Amino acid sequence: MSQQYKDPYGGTPSNIGPQIRTDHYVKRALIEAQKEQYFTQLADVTAMPKHMGKRIKRFHYLPLLDDANINDQGIDAAGVTLVPGQWSAVDANGQLISSGHPDKTTALAVSGAVNAIQDGGNLYGSSKDVGAIHAKLPVLSETGGRVNRVGFKRVTIEGTLEKFGFFDEYTQESLDFDSDEQLMMHINREMIMGANEITEDVLQIDLLNSAGTVRFAGDATSTATVGTDDLVTYDDLVKLSIDLDNNRTPKQTKVITGTRLVDTKVVSGGRVMYIGSELIPTLKAMKDYHNNPAFIDVKHYAASGVTLRGEIGSIDQFRIVVVPEMMKWEGAGATGNGTTYETNGKVDVFPMLVVGDASFSTIGFQTDGQNTKFKILHKKPGEKVADRNDPYGETGFMSIKWFYGFLALRPERIALIKTAAKA
Question: Which helix (H) or strand (E) holds 172?
């Protein structure tokens, strides 16, 4: 049923119709929608393609010294080709005992083995073991020779664009007789705000599912094992920060602060962590290693730099942002006892999402000052909409459509802590 005006008092129609300036309302609603964005403001601005089809693609070149850089081009110091996907056993002095094992466990089972290194064209991979690195250093003899050949590998990362949209119908009388003379402006605003929230929700799901660094609070080892005692601690945050350091995640973040794609600022002093409001009491009560309050309120440092939309404070190296629509896994944890948020007797599992700089790309609601990333079609009642289905042209409509695409550029820079929350 389209939007209609049903006069409960039998009144007479007004002789002055409403004045509509859709372009003004679109611009105003766009600005308001931008103010409600939490995740889109962190999108990689330089990686938002336009007019490039419905699939986002990018090459990612793996570093030479990375476990994932496995290929068949490697030659060791003896001139022997290393086979990718196989493991070698190394003794306490870093000397090679045997090679060609199908997995790390088998290699470690070799007599005298204290470490196992992966064969391939990446020398010692991501190992930090002194012995393993020493055994794989590309040393050259006086005569050189055909030794120490390495190889490089690239992978293709991609994301698909999807089209979203919805529409609303209304009658001419709903405009003429409604008591709100700005009815169309409000409807226009709510459509854009709704589309913005849908996009934010889809992006949040993609970020949660794309996290390459995941930790569980307490003794939990999976979502299903998160119990009432598995509450996030300061130690959990410090260890997550170490994981992100090892993944070379920057400690500064570029954010979109205005309605132009070029209007960006750099947020320094920590990585961004998104939480739901249910976790605020837990974080504010958190103690550090010295039993001092770990939470620093945003008012203590807001004047010294750029703050994020929804930012409430910081803990260790994380800037904490509260998202009103932050999702959770309802009743996905272990059996509860009533002390935490629960659904049907099971613990609700809450995400603490960290989004590192340049970790993803998406298409959002920003504008370049001339063209928006979504399209609104508005046809008012009248001759232009009259046809055999509406011969009097009494019904108009407004529709909105847009494309959304997500590309995880560096999943290891997207981190997640799954925790319970005190009720």
Answer: helix 172-177
C-alpha angle 340-344-345 in degrees, rounded to nearest 5: 50
DSSP states along 87-98? EEEE-TTS-EEE
Which pLDDT score, from 0 to 100, does residue 9 have? Answer: 44
pLDDT digits (tens, 9 = 90+) for 12-58: 444 444 444 445 556 666 655 555 677 876 766 554 556 667 777 77
Torsion of CA 21, 23, 25, 28, to 10 degrees: -140
Q: Is 223 helix (H, G, I), strand (E, B) or coil?
A: helix
CB 90 within 8 A of CB 97: yes
DSSP single-letter state for residue 33: H
Q: How far is CA 230 from the centre of its chain?
A: 24
Cβ neighbours of 255 (radius 10 Å): 21
**E strand intervals along 179-223:** 213-216
CB 423 within 8 A of CB 336: no
Give the alpha-carbon dihedral of 187, 193, 198, 203, to 10 degrees: 160
DSSP sequence for 347-415: EPBEEEEEE-TT-EEE--S-B-SS--SEEEEEE-SSGGG-BTTBTT--EEEEEEEEEE-EEES-GGGEE
Single out the residue of 197, 354, 352, 356 nearest to residue 275, CA to CA: 352
Q: 151 near 121, Cβ under 8 Å?
A: yes
What torsion do the CA atoms of 25, 29, 32, 37 make, to the nearest 10 degrees? -160
Residue in the block written with tokens 């509860």: 336
pTM here? 0.75
Q: Are 195 and 398 in contact (CB under 8 A)?
A: no
Is 413 within 8 Å of 361 (Cβ atoms)?
no
Question: Residues 341-381: pLDDT tens digits?
Answer: 999 999 999 999 999 888 888 765 554 444 457 788 888 89
